């Protein structure tokens, strides 16, 4: 029996991982396999986690999650060989990926026969500015969508949401547009009720040349991070960033991890839990940050200079 694929796309920080987390945590008996670029971002409730092996996290509700490393088609083939076989596969793309390229790969006859693409879901941050909506990559993501999920709807008034809906409908009239507070998207829109039905292949537009726009830079430290200093550092870097995330111990709460996220110009901090036995595993830095920016906008030297100012030496 074919295994339908749900492709989740959307710009950096739109809320794709929140949607995938919600799908896995509310599988309602479905065996879902999630393939994600940023494996560490999946944050399923602890009671759902059953174990991990071969780069795959098994969940006690029958779902699994694995990291997309290397060739997508090879990853899908490995999932289809699993026993029991998943009933659905969710692929979360990178925020800088053009879904048309991924869709084209999924049209491979060998993959289509076993795992046809059922639905393309595009997650859009409702706070996205009018200028940002003109971004060519974001528009390509929207034009590929069957369903558009508007995230962070609680941060925008009714007029702002209506304006965004008009833009989405103009770009993709056939798409179903839904509000997705906390990542909640109706499963009926994403998964077919009839598992025996095979969707029709999609018409592919002309292949566009790939253009590298973004780069990833990282920063690590073996020292504790001062939260007030971190806020100052992020304030200096934020205008140049498309996305940032990190995991670190703080001066204010040693022995506990803090999760940092920057998306859509908004920074958030959340508890990451206590460290195992009060210490990190060998080889893992005490503070780890990843920054995504347009190529050439930021340098490693600038990040090091700014971030070094927010650590507590000791």
Automatic annotation (TrEMBL):
Gene3D superfamilies, per database record: P-loop containing nucleotide triphosphate hydrolases
Coiled coil: none
Domain CobW C-terminal, first and last residues per copy: 214-311
Pfam families: cobW, CobW_C
SMART domains, sorted: CobW_C
InterPro entries: CobW-like_C, CobW/HypB/UreG_nucleotide-bd, P-loop_NTPase, Zinc-reg_GTPase_activator
Cross-referenced PANTHER family: COBW DOMAIN-CONTAINING PROTEIN, COBW-RELATED
Function: Zinc chaperone that directly transfers zinc cofactor to target proteins, thereby activating them. Zinc is transferred from the CXCC motif in the GTPase domain to the zinc binding site in target proteins in a process requiring GTP hydrolysis.
Record's protein name: G3E family GTPase
Species for this entry: Bradyrhizobium algeriense
């Amino acid at each position: 029996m074919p295994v339908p694929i749900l492709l989740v796309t959307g710009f950096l920080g739109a809320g794709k991982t929140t949607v995938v987390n919600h799908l896995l945590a509310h599988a309602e008996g479905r065996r879902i396999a999630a393939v994600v670029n940023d494996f560490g971002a999946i944050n399923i409730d602890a009671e759902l986690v059953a174990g991990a092996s071969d780069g795959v996290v098994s969940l006690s509700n029958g779902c699994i999650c694995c990291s997309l490393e290397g060739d997508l088609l090879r990853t899908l083939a490995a999932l289809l060989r699993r026993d029991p076989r998943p009933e659905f596969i969710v692929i979360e793309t990178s925020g800088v990926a053009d879904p048309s390229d991924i869709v084209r790969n999924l049209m491979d006859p060998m993959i289509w026969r076993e795992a046809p693409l059922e639905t393309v879901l595009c997650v859009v941050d409702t706070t996205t500015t009018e200028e940002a909506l003109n971004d060519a990559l974001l528009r390509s993501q929207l034009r590929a969508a069957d369903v558009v999920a508007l995230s962070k709807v609680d941060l925008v008034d009714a007029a702002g949401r209506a304006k965004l809906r008009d833009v989405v409908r103009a770009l993709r009239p056939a798409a179903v547009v839904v509000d997705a507070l906390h990542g909640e998207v109706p499963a009926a829109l994403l998964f077919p009720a009839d598992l025996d039905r095979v969707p029709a292949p999609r018409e592919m537009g002309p292949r566009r040349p790939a253009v590298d726009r973004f780069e990833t830079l990282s920063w690590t430290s073996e020292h504790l991070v001062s939260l007030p200093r971190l806020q100052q550092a992020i304030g200096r870097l934020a205008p140049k960033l498309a996305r940032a995330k990190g995991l670190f111990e703080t001066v204010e709460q040693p022995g506990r991890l803090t999760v940092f996220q920057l998306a859509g110009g908004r920074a958030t901090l959340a508890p990451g839990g206590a460290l195992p036995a009060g210490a990190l595993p060998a080889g893992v830095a005490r503070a780890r940050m990843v920054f995504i920016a347009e190529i050439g906008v930021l340098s490693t030297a600038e990040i090091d200079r700014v971030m070094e100012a927010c650590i507590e030496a000791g």
